[in-house]
Amino acid sequence: MSEIVDIPERYAERKYDLIIVGGGIYGVMLAYEASRKGLSALLLEKDDFGVHTSANSLRIIHGGFRYLQTADIYRYRESVGERRWFLKRYPEYVVPLPCMMPLYGNGLRRPSVLRTALFINDILSCRRNQEVRGDRHLPSGNVVNQSETVKLFPDVDKKGLVGGAVWHDAFMPDCRGLLHRILEDAKVKGAIALNRCEAIGLIKNGNMVAGVKIFNKKSCKEITFYSDVVVNAAGPWSRDLSCTLDTEIEKLFYPSVAWNVLFDRDALSDHALAVAPKKKNARTYFIVPLNGKLFAGTGHSSWSQNVGNAKPEPTLSQLETFMQDINGAVPGLNLKSGDIDQVHAGLLPARKYDQVELADREVIADHGAIGGVAGLYSVSGVKFTTSRLVAEKTLEKIFTGKKT
């Protein structure tokens, strides 16, 4: 884990190229990309790095296979490229993950449909293993027959089963460890990272950013850090922080709650399993092997509460429905509340307030361009996989035409 500097005051004497507020994966990636470009970056986190949403994911680095269903080729290519980046840059933290979807010969879950989809996936991701270490290569996908499907997933619902679709994604067993490793690399290149430092206001020169004022939770003192650029990357709190620092940007983050559950039950397979209960409009869940245990997700619901300091978590009723769905997808599994080891929950951006449908594009807002404080930017991303790419886009937007 990353060693955290304990005396923030000593870093208040210099001026930075940019100050980043928010130490989840998006803030950490901004610090990483900024330092890689030779920019002096200060990263501020009000709690501990990566302790909120970033630590509670299903741990899959998605290559975007599901985006082919909606022909979102732009998002698909971004995901494939960034998955490759993780496998290439951090092979000790990111490993291949074999995935399988049981096929029942109806709708989109037909061997002919999936065979075509897997072929397209392999063609469009033909560079997925370029410069990636050999033991981290992702094989081509294929459709296996019924007996092979049962061999890979003995508890599969065999009624109507005609085969299974197999493909590979990437997996980060220790997602917070990965985040801290990326942060360490940023620090080696010159970034400064301070935790327990909460941004409470901007320092302005007229209508331009001059710095940010923070409250040091360790010393209970206020400190001012100076920069002409401040980036709000506070994840679920980005909308509230934009209001605190300047003015609210509503589209930044419409919160919804998502959760994954680790059960004290043995893993069902060495593959991640894409399963769905046999009912109308059923959502697909992934059952992932994590340290030999059954890790399932993702449950999802609207969130109408204020983000504030509330800890997002599903209700007991939502957890019951979640388990009923998984039990319905895997006959005989019979998960119960007593089997729950840990619930990993966090807030994800929805398309609109009090809705479940997730946002599918990042938001990079220039406050100065919409009548706010010049030099203040707010960023909200949609998934761990593309965090580095969004950081790159953000820095390009800020420093276009400037030496980096």
Could you name the key traits of this structure?
single chain; 404 residues; alpha/beta; FAD/NAD(P)-binding domain; 9-stranded mixed sheet; 19 strands
Description:
This protein is α/β, with parallel strands linked by helices and 404 residues long. Helix content is 25%, strand content 29%. The longest helix has 17 residues, at 73-89. The model has no long low-confidence stretch (mean pLDDT 93).
Q: Nearest-angstrom radius of gyration?
A: 22 Å
Beginning-to-end CA distance, first to last residue:
29 Å
Q: What integer is the average pLDDT? A: 93
Tally of helical runs: 8
SS elements, strand count: 19
* Low-confidence parts: none
User: What class would the helix/strand composition place it in?
Assistant: alpha/beta
Per CATH, the class of the domain at 8-54 and 176-252 and 360-399 reads: Alpha Beta
> Helical amount among residues, as a percent range?
10-25%
User: Biggest sheet, open or closed, and with what strands and sense?
Assistant: 9 strands, mixed
Helix and strand element order? EEHEEHEHEHEHEEEEEHEEEEHEEEH
Q: What percentage of the residues does DSSP assign to strands (E)?
A: 25-35%
How does the overall form come out from the CA principal axes? globular
CATH fold description of the domain at 8-54 and 176-252 and 360-399 = FAD/NAD(P)-binding domain
CATH superfamily label of the domain at 8-54 and 176-252 and 360-399 = FAD/NAD(P)-binding domain
Q: Would you identify the CATH architecture of the domain at 8-54 and 176-252 and 360-399?
A: 3-Layer(bba) Sandwich
